[in-house]
Amino acid sequence: MVDRIVVGWNESESAAAALDWALKRAGTTPVQIVTVVPGQETGSDYLSPTSPTSQARVKLMEAADRMRERHPDARIDTQVVRGAVVEELTRASVPGTLLVVGATPRSERRGLFGWSVATRIAGARTPGTVAVVPSNVFIGVRSGVVVGVDGSAETPDVLEVAIAEALELHEELRLVHAWAPPPEWQDVYVPDLGFEDSLEDVHQGVLDDAVAAASQISGLAIRESLISEPPAVAVSEAARGAAELVVGNHSSRGVRRFLLGSVSHAVLRDLYAPTIVVRS
């Protein structure tokens, strides 16, 4: 359950879309808008009206006032912190918090996306949940909550969040499981005729288990898709036009704690829908 929403703010178009998206869904949930000013804090930050921190605070308060006019019932407060953007926003991701950051879809950006601020935050190993919102979120009609299920240990957590989102938004829950024979099969040997069918049955079983779990929820509309494509491709394509996409974060400990799994990274690179990344 989300009892607080934190939104990263940097005056960009994608941050504005993310903030608007967060406020539209917040209801009575408190929303905190956070600006991170790079560098270490000094005493002059608060004494000088022209310091980066003071200027950022004024701009943030102005943005908050504009949002209060658009969302008069919203509970909004602001915070300006000094430090590294990824680390400071990640610090705000605690249990019960939805951390929302904006990003530009690949179709609208120049150059490589790689490990952007949004993907690094989404991949960080923290207790909270992260939503990455595309700057074009309000363009076109969106419907359905898509969830990628892979049979991993974190699938129940991901499915639980997706079900809650579908119920909250009054949207259909679309469960997607994708698989593809490893490409080396074609180079090394040809498997028995029935082997691929047997493998498909195994993957169908993974999807069936997720559908069975979701079907226990009364009043939830469900659609299932078993897709014979690489998972990253299948989940990204399923997210086109979706109200939301929910995926797991397969991050690790140690030096890999800021890395997403390949499927989650791919869907954030394409970013066809607001994407909620769930930690186990």
Automatic annotation (TrEMBL):
Q: Which Pfam families does the protein's record reference?
A: Usp
Q: Which CDD domains match?
A: USP-like
Domain (UspA) spans 1-133, 145-279
* Entry-linked InterPro entries: Rossmann-like_a/b/a_fold (IPR014729), Universal_stress_UspA (IPR006015), UspA (IPR006016)
Task: Please name the PANTHER family in this protein's record.
Answer: STRESS RESPONSE PROTEIN NHAX, UNIVERSAL STRESS PROTEIN UP12
Q: Which family does it belong to?
A: Belongs to the universal stress protein A family.
Designated name of the protein: Nucleotide-binding universal stress protein, UspA family
What is the organism field in this record? Herbiconiux ginsengi
